[in-house]
Amino acid sequence: MAQPSFYPAHGAPVPATNAAMALGCPWCAAPSTPSAIVQSCGRCGRSFTLSAGPALDGSIAPPPFHPAAFRISLRWSIVVTYRFATLEPQGITYGTLDPVVGMAPVDQSQIAYPDVVSIAVWRKLALTKCFAGALVPLPIALFAAYGAILAVAKAPGVAAVLGLIALAFGLLAAWLLHQGIAVGRRQARIVGRWTSFTVPFENSPSFYAELFRRCGLAPPPIP
Ligand SMILES: [Zn+2]
C-alpha cells in the first residue's frame, strides 16, 4: 500500500545525529544498547527501556499498512499552548495546536512506523500531583483524624464526622500520591530517521500498546 507523499521514502540511511540520539539514554544521552527489559544507564543510573525499531533492525517487520486503522490521539498542555500526538494508520503525527481554540495544528511532523529507529520509555515523578496530594488533602486528613481522636470520648457524633472527613481526604491524598509517584509522568521518546519527539502517554495505555504493535514490536515493561 502506497504511503502518503509527506512521509519520507523508506530504506534511506539514518542520519548520524538521529542515530546517536536513537541509541542514547533518554535522561543523559549516554550511549546505550537496545534491550527487551528495563535497563539502568551506565552513566546516570536512571531506569528506562530502549527498543530498536524497524529502521534500525531489519528483522523487525511492522504489520502491513491498514488504511482503516483507528486513530489514538493524545493532547497535553505546555505553558500556553497544547501539544498533540496521534497514532494514524501510516505513522505518528506530533505537533503544536493553535493557542486560541487548541484544535488546529500550527506545526506538525510525522514518523511513519517503518521509519522508527528506536523508542525509549521512562517515567518521571508527576511533581504537581505529588505536591497537590502532600500540601492540601494530606494535612486536612491528619488534622481531622487528630480531631476525631480528641473528640471520640466526649462527642462521638463529632468524632464520626471528623473520621469521615479524614477518610475522604486521606483517600484523595493517597490517590494523588499514587498518581504522582507510581503512575508518574510516562514518557516515550520516538526517534525516526528524520525527526524525533517525546510524548507523555500516562493518560492512554492503548497509545503505548498500539505504538509498539504498529512498529512490529512487543511492548516492553514500563520502567
Ligand atoms: Zn543516563
Q: Could you list the spans in which at least 5 consecutive residues all have pLDDT below 50?
A: 1-6
User: What does the radius of gyration come to?
Assistant: 23 Å
Order of helices and strands: HEEEEEEEHHHEEH
Q: How many DSSP helices? A: 5
Distance between the termini: 35 Å
Structural classification? alpha+beta
Helix content: 25-40%
Oligomer: single chain
How many independent structural domains?
Answer: 2
Describe this entry's structure for a reader.
It contains 5 helices and 9 strands. With 223 residues, it is α+β, with helices and mostly antiparallel strands. The strands form 2 sheets. A 5-stranded antiparallel β-sheet has the order 1-2-7-8-9. α3 (137-151) runs antiparallel to α4. The longest helix has 28 residues, at 156-183. Mean pLDDT is 88; it is low at 1-6. It binds zinc ion. Zinc ion (ZN) binds next to loops. Zinc ion (ZN) is lined by residues 25, 27-28, 30, 41, 43-44, 46.
Features:
4-stranded antiparallel β-sheet; single chain; 223 residues; binds zinc ion; 9 strands; alpha+beta
Q: Secondary structure elements and their pairing?
A:
Layout: H1 16-22, E1 39-40, E2 47-52, E3 72-78, E4 81-87, E5 91-97, E6 105-112, E7 116-124, H2 127-135, H3 137-151, H4 156-183, E8 185-192, E9 196-200, H5 205-214
Antiparallel strand pairs: 1-2, 2-7, 3-4, 4-5, 5-6, 7-8, 8-9
Helix pairs in contact: 2-4, 3-4
Bound molecules: zinc ion.
Zinc ion (ZN) is lined by residues 25, 27-28, 30, 41, 43-44, 46.
